[in-house]
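Appendix C: a fully annotated inverse folding record. The material below is reproduced so that readers can follow the format used throughout the book. The structure is listed first as tokens, followed by the designed sequence.
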């Protein structure tokens, strides 16, 4: 477990991140300055350690967003293309796939109903 605190320049506490990376799925908990849970995020990895899903939860446990990733690999097993598909339940917004390469990315976004 790793903890990170985000202070302001005056030293006041803004939020605290708790990372639980010992097991699968990896988990991040973010707490406000009052100590209440702001959100929880799960990172689901494949057998090679590539992130294949990212799920963000509201403090009440409802899903804020869900992102899935698919990869294309070269003959050496290095990923050359990553496609990200986003469904944001809270904002009711669906984004078209975003395509990433190890050196850069492009993004195409559409809103549901458009």
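Designed amino acids, in order:
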């Amino acid at each position: 477990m790793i903890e990170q605190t985000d202070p302001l320049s005056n030293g006041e506490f803004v939020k605290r991140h708790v990372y639980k990376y010992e097991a699968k799925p990896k988990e991040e908990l973010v707490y406000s300055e009052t100590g209440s849970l702001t959100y929880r995020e799960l990172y689901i990895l494949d057998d090679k350690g590539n992130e294949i899903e990212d799920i963000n939860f509201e403090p009440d446990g409802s899903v804020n967003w869900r992102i899935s990733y698919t990869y294309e690999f070269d003959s050496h097993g290095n990923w050359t293309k990553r496609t990200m598909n986003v469904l944001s339940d809270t904002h009711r917004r669906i984004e078209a796939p975003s395509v990433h390469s190890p050196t850069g990315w492009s993004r195409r976004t559409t809103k549901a109903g458009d």
